[in-house]
Amino acid sequence: MYTLNPSNPSFFNSEKLYSEFIRQATVCHGCRMCVNYCDSFPVLFKKIDSKEQDLNKLTLDDLFDVASKCFHCKLCYVNCPYVPPHEFNMDFPSLMEWAWLYYKSKTGLRIKDYMFEMLDATNLARPLVKHLMQKGKEVLGLHKDAPTLPVSEKGLKEKVKPKKIENPKAKVALFTTCLVDNFFTDIGEDLIEVYNSLGIEVIIPNFLCCGAPMLDAGDVNRLKKNAEHNMKLIEELVNKGYDIVVPIPTCALMIKEYHRVLDKKVPKVYDSIEYLQKLKNEGKIELNAKFDKTIYYHPPCHLKYLQVGLPGPRLLRTLGAKVEISNKGCSGIDGGWGLRNYDTARRVGSKMMESFKQSKADVFMTECPLAGLQIEKASNKRPLHPIQLLKEAMKNG
């Protein structure tokens, strides 16, 4: 709906930005269904009410204040009754992204913003980053009470070499993401093992960070730079017959958003289980697997936004698992925002965290390892990615 491309003059059109703020705020004011999702909406409604509900008295500074509270979970879009094709054409989270990036492009970035963006460079100074994660989170722009990212001793590309598959049933280019490459490498290792065992060729191209930390920090220029690099690679790989698979929903969402960052169409990218379900439906693979445990599952907000259903629970249920879905709201972490703003993240994620603390399920599951940090903090039990449970199920098959 809105361009996030700083090379597009429309991005810096403050009159258009303000007009769209008033238009969408008017719809939100008449609905107020999203008041409990994040602090953006209570702040917005308080401002409207303080101005005697005269929305024309709202200012750009009001918009920037509202946008600063948004952590890009996208739940307001997922649940809004007025998104396209409705005539109101609502897209409040995209408006927040535009406002935030516009505001930061005018006011500038802080040192902590730049440090947070550098998490994708962990492989260049792994021992230092690990030390800072444990002893000096604030230097990296992280809240001191936030869950600690587990820095891997080696990156995924150092730890695993995908097998050469003769006559592959499918060819996959894995967008490893900073999280899988630097912190949760076991997810990538298990994904490659599962895919290779099913006759799927996997390569690991030199993608850059998806751009989620740049969006959180408000760095529109580096967001575009990373998007340009990744988009060029994606297009080349798709033309060579590869499908793009992304194991982390936040990163898949960011790639989907490249159409607004670059003002061009983006090829389809797949969730890791969604892709296996696709191949299974096409008769290209068979899953001889069994999983008869109980699972308590957190559906990531960003997976909901991708509109691919819940591939993990769907597949595990066909293998015999009993899956209960938590549906207790957002974890509050949202691609790293909550690691910087943990006071808010702890409050937003409290219902979800408590539900996992009380659960007696055999296994916890989520595609989002950052939400998993919240779950582990509450329950002392680490949740697994669906691909990891599928690996176990295939051993039992």
From TrEMBL:
InterPro entries, sorted: 4Fe4S_Fe_S_CS, Cys_rich_dom
Statement: the UniProt record of this protein carries the keyword Iron-sulfur: yes
Keyword annotations from UniProtKB, A to Z: 4Fe-4S, Iron, Iron-sulfur, Metal-binding, Repeat
PROSITE patterns xref list: 4FE4S_FER_1
Transcription among keywords: no
Domain Cysteine-rich as annotated: residue spans: 172-256, 296-375
GO molecular function: 4 iron, 4 sulfur cluster binding; metal ion binding; oxidoreductase activity
Protein name: Conserved cysteine-rich domain protein
Native species: Sulfolobus acidocaldarius (strain ATCC 33909 / DSM 639 / JCM 8929 / NBRC 15157 / NCIMB 11770)
